[in-house]
Structure formats: structure tokens, C-alpha cells
What does this fold into?
Amino acid sequence: MSSFNGFGTTFYGRKYFNPKDESSIKIKWIIFGFLPFIPLRAYRIIMGETKDNFWGIFLSSSTPYTILGEVPLKANLDLILSTYLKIWGGLIFFILSFWYPFFFLIPAIIVIKFFIDEIKIRKLVNKERRGT
It folds into this structure.
């Protein structure tokens, strides 16, 4: 399993982590430009340490894996869809933010609203505790 300048195969996603042996289910993908395109198979694996190699402008990375067994790809459609959504959705959001700068403001507005609501709730709880 290796990639060269973001082209090749790699594992993405993580599901059903087992803390005893540190294994999890991962999907093997064909990648182009580090982006997942085609899911190939699903495996229960134990990941090793990723090694990156730089040769001038070229980047190569490889990660040793211990494959414990193959699992049905169809049984992990949720992992495939969530991988597509996270990576491609994040890329689309990033690209759109250059054309429509307010896209970066939406998460900030949501976080600010969350903290304002939290402050209001804490004030109400404190009022009830004091009995005023």
C-alpha cells in the first residue's frame, strides 16, 4: 500500500476500533491527488507508522499494515459515504469559500450562537439556584 505524489492506493476511514489489539475496519481506496475515488475492499487492520520520503519536489509515503482479514465492502457503505462526504465536502466547502467568503463565517456564527446560548442557560441555572 503506497502512494506517489498523491496517486496510488491508501486506507481511509475508521470504524469499529478495537482497543485490545488497536485494529479497526478501513477501506482501501484508489486515490488521485490524495482524494479517494474508488473504494476497492474493506479490511480489519492494524496500522503501522507512516513513512514519508521526499525527493526534491516528489513525495512518497508508505504505511505498513497488518491485515487481520477482509470484511464485506457492502456492509460498510456508511464508512464509504462518510469518507466521501468528509473529504469531498470539505474540499467543496474550501473552494466555495474563495468565491463566497461568507462560507467561512457560517461555522463562526454557529459557534458564537452556541456560546451565547450556553451563557444564557448558565445564567438561568444560577438564578434558579439563588432562588431569584
In short: Residues 2-99 form one domain. The first strand starts at residue 2 and ends at 4. DSSP finds two helices and seven strands in the chain. The helical segments are 77-99, 102-130.
